[in-house]
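Me: Here is a favour to ask of a fellow structure person. Could you put it straight underneath, so I can go through it closely?

Assistant:
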Amino acid sequence: MFEQVLDAVRAHDRIIIHRHFRPDGDAIGSQTGLKYLIKANFPDKEVYSVGDDPARYGFIEGSAVDAVSDDMYADALAVILDCGGASLISDTRYSLAKTTVRLDHHLFTGQIADIEVISPEYESCCGMVTALAMEAGFTLDKTAAKALFTGMVTDSGRFRYDTTSTDTFMRAAYLMQAGFSTDEIYLPLYEEELGRVQLRAYFIGKIKLTEHNVAYIYTDRAEMMQLGADDFTVSRGMANVMSDIKGVSIWVNFTETDAGVLCELRSSLHNINPVAVKYGGGGHAKASGATVADRETAMRMLNDLDKMSNGAEI
């Protein structure tokens, strides 16, 4: 499955790894994991990672980004990870590279790279990088293994989401052969400051339901200013305070920002991706996102989700 990707890695002396901006655990995990797998198995190659700050995932060992100048791309291979669209890629200089490769587990929306392996059947991009390592017979580096396991955990919802398969657990078992303790991952991954716990409690109090039990939260700019929280913490970070509510199978978090209204769509039963795509977004079948212009458009999206919850096809 990964033959062309492996051939491209072997053919280039310099490899620069990209992922999406505002990274989650899968983006940082796959980037860091691939970087250290290549360094361990091709010690003569230069391997760099680029992008915006890892933020809360900076606890992942080796996740710090590198300083890379434009001229370093001339003969390089740029690898793009966990990006469903070109607009999501952190650092657009991948286009300067001699060759580009993309590994992604989102639904395909159009070609970005010269060589692409797109497979939504995987629970995570980290799972894809792990499968590549297994297929190639790579020596397993502990730093890489911990990073990849972290991304598998976060993007599978701690192995709860329905993309989790027997292959997922086989890949997880393969990674654990590197000899790390899961405490090294779970403790920093899930511990929270008291302020974050209190913020989550505040957002739980904001939950509303539509006629057909779509849960939603809407946060306008004035409220965002009062909260003093960043866009990512509120939009994606608070989306799943609505999960696991009895009778609710679709939920959406709307957050007003300078860029528009961020819409984080989630579901436990339905494929909500078509709704996200209708409004210019994308993602997975049960976890998608979009950015719309205003509250009126956001409410039209909510109405579509309410119709879907009532059995309509969108």
